[in-house]
Amino acid sequence: MIAVAALEKSLSAEQAVALREHVMRSLRRWRAKDPEDLAQEVLMRILSKLQNGLLIMNPFAFAHRVAVHVLQEDRRSRRREFPLRFDLSCLRSENKYADEELLRCLDVCLRKCLSRAERVLLQRYDEADATGRQALAAKQGLTQNALRIKVYQVRSRLRACVQAYLKKACFPTTDPLVKSSLGIVSGTMTGF
């Protein structure tokens, strides 16, 4: 509501409240995780633009466009928070030691698919903040974007290895017709 009060100086009170409700409805329809906070961010960005002298002819269309960008940024940041997520339902239903199986899977895949330098790179990249990543890129002799791409490629290889391992653990059959008829892909990962 802070942004609504500030927007009332630029728009009428009814327009500001209607704009917030419009943004909230859109964010809920798009299944945003936290529509209230995102709506507040949208209104603050609109307020910033108005204070910088931008003339907005259609505030609802402009708010819609800003909301799309804010939602995309939020989803990207949430994906970065969870770099590895696995669907272990197939392991849990058949095996009461699923956590041990996952740890064994990760250990095998880390040793099998990645060199020691790549394992260290992933660990340092995940632990570093923005300035740490810049220093890591300089130490590797890369730009930050090239470092990000390299980490992405390493994670992709690790993801493929983990998926293959979990498929074998969940579906030990070698018959491709059985696997394809199940239509289940175990070990899906998001956040890359």
Write up what this structure looks like.
With 192 residues, the protein is an all-alpha fold. Helix content is 74%, strand content 0%. The model is unreliable at 83-88 and 175-192 (pLDDT under 50).
Summary, kept brief:
The protein is mainly α. The protein is 74% helix and 0% strand. Helix 2 crosses helix 4 and helix 3 crosses helix 4.
Based on the structure, what is the oligomeric state of the protein chains?
A: single chain
Low-confidence stretches: 83-88, 175-192
Global outline: elongated
Indicate the radius of gyration in whole angstroms: 23 Å
Give a short account of the largest sheet. none
The helix/strand series, from N terminus to C terminus, equals HHHHHHHHHH
- Count up the helices: 10
Please indicate the percent range of residues in DSSP E strands (runs of 2 or more): under 5%
> What is the SS-derived class?
mainly alpha
Intertermini distance? 34 Å
Considering DSSP H and I runs of 4 or more, what fraction of the residues is helical?
over 70%
- Look at the structure and give the mean pLDDT: 75
The figure for the number of domains is: 2
Write the layout of secondary structure elements.
Layout: H1 2-7, H2 13-29, H3 35-51, H4 59-81, H5 89-94, H6 98-113, H7 116-127, H8 130-140, H9 144-170, H10 176-182
Which descriptors would you attach to this protein?
0% strand; mainly alpha; 74% helix
